[in-house]
Design brief:
alpha/beta, four-stranded parallel β-sheet, Rossmann fold
Length: about 220
């Protein structure tokens, strides 16, 4: 129906992608995440503001919610972690910020992995939730404006980070979230920095992938 009736049929995805107003609607719904961050930080640290926010980004719904109430606060650093797959330039990647050009997908103008003549290229990530050839328009703006810092993490870095978090915290993160935890392979922080990483999903669904990957 979407193909046959593009004028009055919308392709609606549960992320901050697609035609307006759907990305904005999803971001607003997800903004409860940043409300909760403000509340918990005020209680635990005496301030609602962290030094940095870190979230994984495919389409970017969890990240949009994490950043939402901090977007205009320049004192809070925004870090987005994308999936580099087997390497940014390996041909098997989903690092849209590094590989994308301006294009249109699912009704939104954004950064998009595409060929010279505008055909969408196949993305790859060990994480299904980050395996997307574009990125939400909000995140494309964060990247092009310089407001957000974008980092790409490989499958191996993400899987290793997920295993370490499981061992240290007893929490099995989704592989999507494990990409965010791999930030420490790429970025240094001060000992007194307040850093919030959004643990956006649980890894029950990924247990077999972890077991197979590490031959547990």
């Amino acid at each position: 129906d979407w193909i046959n009736n593009p004028v009055n049929t919308h392709y609606i995805i549960g992320s901050v992608v697609g035609p307006h107003p759907y990305p904005d609607m999803v971001a607003r719904f997800q903004s409860v995440i940043s409300e909760e961050i403000q509340s918990q930080l005020l209680e635990k640290e005496g301030t609602p503001n962290p030094d940095y926010l870190v979230a994984c980004v495919g389409g970017g719904s969890n990240a949009a919610g994490t950043y939402y109430h901090y977007l205009d606060n320049e004192d809070v650093g925004i870090i987005a972690v994308e999936a580099a797959g087997k390497g940014i330039h390996s041909g098997e990647s989903a690092a849209t910020s590094a590989l994308g050009k301006v294009g249109i997908i699912h009704g939104s103008k954004t950064l998009l992995m595409q060929t010279q003549d505008g055909q969408i290229t196949e993305p790859y990530s060990i994480s299904a939730g980050l395996d997307y050839p574009g990125v939400g328009p909000m995140h494309a703006h964060l990247y092009t404006s310089g407001r957000g810092e974008f980092i790409s993490v490989t499958d191996d870095e993400a899987m290793t980070a997920g295993l370490v978090v499981s061992q240290l915290e007893g929490i099995i993160p989704a592989i999507e979230t494990s990409h965010a935890f791999a930030i420490f392979d790429h970025r240094k922080f001060k000992p007194d920095d307040i850093l919030v990483i959004n643990l956006s999903g649980r890894g029950d669904k990924d247990l077999q992938t972890y077991i197979d990957y590490f031959k547990l």
